[in-house]
UniProtKB/TrEMBL annotation:
Species of the source: Parasponia andersonii (Sponia andersonii)
Record-linked HAMAP family: PEPcase_type1 (MF_00595)
Coiled coil: none
Biased composition (Low complexity): 390-399
Lineage, highest ranks first: Eukaryota, Viridiplantae, Streptophyta, Embryophyta, Tracheophyta
Biased composition (Polar residues): 407-422
Protein name in UniProt: phosphoenolpyruvate carboxylase
Gene this chain is encoded by: PanPEPC3
Listed cofactors: Mg(2+)
Quaternary structure and partners: Homotetramer.
Amino acid sequence: MTDTTDDIAEEISFQAFDDDCKLLGNLLNEVLQREVGNGFMEKVERVRILAQSASNMRMAGVEDMAELVEKQLASEISKMTLEEALTLARAFSHYLNLMGIAETHHRVRKQRNLALLSRSCDDVFDKLLQGGVSPDELYDAVCKQEVEIVLTAHPTQINRRTLQYKHIRIAHLLDYNDRSDLSVEDREMLIEDLVREITSIWQTDELRRHKPTPVDEARAGLNIVEQSLWKAVPHYLRRVSTALKKHTGKPLPLTCTPIKFGSWMGGDRDGNPNVTSKVTKDVSLLSRWMAIDLYIREMDSLRFELSMNRCSDRLSRVAHDILEQETSSEDRHESWNQSLSKSQLKLQASALPTQLPHRADQPACTECNDDGSQYPRIEFPGTDHKPLNRQDNQSSRSGSSDRDSSLNPCILSNGSSAASTNGQSSVAARSASFNSTQVLAQRKLFTESQIGRSSFQKLLEPRPPQQSGIAPYRIVLENVKEKLVKTRRRLELLLEDLPCEYDPWDYYETSDQLLEPLLLCYESLQSCGSGVLADGRLADLIRRVSTFGMVLMKLDLRQESARHAEALDAITNYLDMGSYSEWDEEKKLEFLTRELKGKRPLVPQSIEVPSDVKEVLDTFRVAAELGSDSLGAYVISMASNATDVLAVELLQKDARLAVSGELGRPCPGGTLRVVPLFETVKDLRGAGSVIRKLLFIDWYRDHIIKNHNGHQEVMVGYSDSGKDAGRFTAAWELYKAQEDVVSACNEYGIKVTLFHGRGGSIGRGGGPTYLAIQSQPPGSVMGTLRSTEQGEMVQAKFGLPQTAVRQLEIYTTAVLIATLRPPLPPREEKWRNLMEEISNISCQNYRSIVYENPDFLAYFHEATPQAELGFLNIGSRPTRRKSSKGIGHLRAIPWVFAWTQTRFVLPAWLGVGAGLRGVCEKGHTEDLKAIYKEWPFFQCTIDLIEMVLGKADIPIAKHYDEVLVSESRRELGSDLRKELLATEKFVLVVSGHEKLSANNRSLRRLIESRLPYLNPINMLQVEILKRLRCDDDNHKLRDALLITINGIAAGMRNTG
C-alpha cells in the first residue's frame, strides 16, 4: 500500500509535469496561430475539448453520454477537408510528442530529487549485504558481471532522426528551465529558444521520404553512442564504483566493465537482402572509425588537463624516448628535404619535353577513372554521406597533416597524397596536352599549400618543449594522439578500398595497445600523490576504452538456418557428394562432424554457385577477415537442430582456412560464437535436446571449452513465439526452454549465457527491464546476460545521458540480484500443472481465432492499417519473410504494430482470458492468487498483461470496426471485444486489484493525460483510412495517414 507521504511527493512531481505540458502546449498553440491562423486553431481547440469531455465522462462512468460526445466528435472530423485533416493530424501528433518529452523529463527530475533511488546500486548493494551476502561476495559478483545490451535496427522507431535531435534539444531546455537561479532575462531567452525549436519542428517534414539503408540504420546506432552513451558510461561506472567502495571498501577496478554494447545494425541479414557482406564490412570499419574519432576528441581535452611536470620515473623515460624518436625523425626529414632540393634543381636544369603524356601530372592511382581514382569511393546505399568529409570544430583543431589529406585525397600507393589546387587545374589535367610550365606551376602551388598548412598547424599546436621532464604527460598523450590520427587515416583508406601500407607500430589495432599508455599515465599520477587528477577525465577515458574498445559496439551477424543449408547443398552438389538438403539429420551430423575434424578446406576457390549462396559464403569470408575483435556472435534464426549450429561452424572454419592461406598468417581475432535462436513454440520445446546433442559431440564440446572459455550462448525469441501461440503460452514456453537449456549445459559442466530477443511492446516480450530479469528461471542469470533493445526503445531508454545512466544501473542491479538471490521456482508441482493447463487453453483459444477462423485474416486487414504500414519507410527490411499473405509469414513487428494503432493491442492479451477463466471455473482461483503473490514469473506475466490492458481502448477499437470492417465480419470484432472484457475481469481477479493499473497510478495518470489528443487522432485515422481505401493513389491522403500513425505511436509510447 502506498504511503501518504508518497502521495504528496507524487502530486508535487506531477504538478511540475503538468506545468511542463502546459508550457509546451501553450508555445505550440502560439506557433500554430502564427502558422495556420486563428480560425483553424478554434477547430483544433473544439476537437480537443470534445475529446477531453468524452474522456472525463468515461472515467466517471457516464458511458452513454460519453458515447454521444464521441459520435459528435467523429461527425465533425468526417466533415473536414483533406487539408484540415492533415493539419489537425500534424498538430495533435506534435502535442503528443511534446508531452512525451515532458514525461521523460518528469522521470529524470523525479530520479534526481530522490535521496535514495530505488533499484540503484547504493540501494541494492545495501539490501544484499543486509540479506546476508558478504562484502567480498558482492564485490566479486559485480566485478565478474558480464551484461551486453545489443541495439537492433528493428523498424519500430517512427520519428525521423532530425526530429529526434530537435526533441532532445527541447528536453535540454526543460532541464535548464528547472534551475532556480534563472533571471527574468534568462527565462525569456529560454522561452524564445523553445519557440524556435517548436517552430522548426512544425516546419520540418515529419515523414521519411525514402527507406533507410542498413548503413543509415547503423549510423543511427552510432549516433546514440555519440550523443548519449559516450557521456553516460563513465557516469554510470563512477556510480557503481562509489557504491562498491561505500559498501565493500573497494572501488570498481578501472578496466572492469559490467556492461558492454553490441549491435545488429548492418549485421542482421535475416530476411533482409539489403544487408550484404560489403555492408557488414563497411559498417564494422565505420564503427571503428567513429570510435577512434571520439578518442581523438577526448585526447585534446586530456592533454590540456594534464599539464603538470611531476611524474614517475617510468613515464619520464617513455616521454624522453618519444622526444628522442621525434628528434631523429626530424633530422632524417631535414636531410631528405635537402637531397630533394638538389634533385629538383637538377631536374629543372635538364631539358623537359614540350608535351607530356595524357594525365602525366596525376598520381598513378588515378589512371582508370575520369573521376580521379581507379579506387571507388565508398558509397553507402541511399545516402551521399561520406565519413571522410566529416568536420567539426574539435576535429579540425585536433587534426594533423594526415587528417587534412583525408579531405578529397588522391592517395598514392605509399599512403602520401596529392591534391589538385582548384577546379581549373583538374580540367587542364585531363586535356591531351599539358606543358611543363603548368606542371611546375602546379607543383609550386601544391608545395606552397603544404608549407602553409604545416605552418598554420604549428601555430595551432605548438610543439612541446624539447626537454625531458617538461610536461611529460602531454608528450606521451601527443604521441597517443598521433597514432590515433594515423589509425583513423588507415580506416579511411580501408573504407575507400584504397591501398594501405601503414607499419603496425604506427596505428592501434587493439584496445590493450591504447590502454597501455593511458594506464601508465594513471599509475604515474597515483604514485605522485595526484590521485584526484588521475580519477578525473583520464579515468573516464580508460573506462570508455574498456567498455567500447576499438569498435564501440561489436557487430553480431544473423542469418536464417535455411540459408546455410542451401549453401551446403550447393557445395555438396558441386563436389558430387550428393544433395545435403535430402540427407536425414544423422547423415548431416556425421558429414559435418567429419569435416569439422579435418584440416583441409571444403569449398574450392573455383566453385560456381548461385548469387544468394555466394552472398552467404562472402559473409563468412568477411567474418574471417574481421574476426572476433570486430564482430560478436553469429546468430542462427529459426534454429531447430544441432546441424543448424554445426553447419555454421563448418562454413566459418572453411572461410578462416581460406583467408588464412591467402594472408599467410592466422586470421585476426578468434572464431565467432555461434548462437542458435529458438523462436517458435516447437523449437523452444526442443531447445534443451538440441544443446544436449551438440555437447555430446566431442569436437563441439572441446571447441566450446578451447575457443569460448567453456561458455555456450543460446538465444530465445519472444516475437515469433508470441505470434505463434499467444503471449501467455510464449512466456511459459520461454521459461521452460531456459530451464532445459541451463540443465543441459550443467550436465556437461558448460556455462551458459542466455540472449533475450525482447521487443519494445508487451506482445513481443517488452516491458520494464527490472521485472523481466527478476522473473527469469533460477540459475538462468548467473552473472551473464545478453538482451536486445529495439527501435523506439533505444531512443526512449538511451537517447538522453540521464535516462541511459538509470537504465544501465537497472540492468546491473537486476542481474546482480538474479545472480546472488535467484527468484524462487514454483513452490509445488501443482503450480506448474496449473500453468500448463492455462497455457494449453490459452494457446488453443488464440490459434482457433488467429489461424483457424477463416474470417480473421480479412478482418485483420480491414480493421487495422497493416497494409498501409509499408509506406512508413522506417526500416530497411521487408515486412514479410516470404511473399505469402498469411499471418504465418508476416513479421511479428507489423503484426503487433497494426493492433497497437487501433488501441486493441490484441497480440498481448488474446488467449489469456480464456486460460485464466478455464482454470478458475475448475475451482483454482485461490491457487492462482497464491501463485501471483509468491512466484515472480507468474506475477510479472500477469502485471505486464494488466499494464497493456490499461492501454487498450474498447470504444476506439469498436469505432474502427463500425467504419472500416465489412458487416459480415463485425460479429468477429464484437466477440473479440467481449473476450477483452473477460480478460480484464480475470486478470483483476488473479491480481486482486480493484481496477487496471491500480498498482501503477503514475502510469494510469500519464495515459489519461494523453487521451484528449490521442483519441481524436485515432478517429482521424479511421476517417483517412476510409477515404484512402476508396482512393489509394492519393499521396496527400497517404501522408495524412502516416502522420496519424506517427501520432498514435507517440501517444502509446511504443509501436511494435
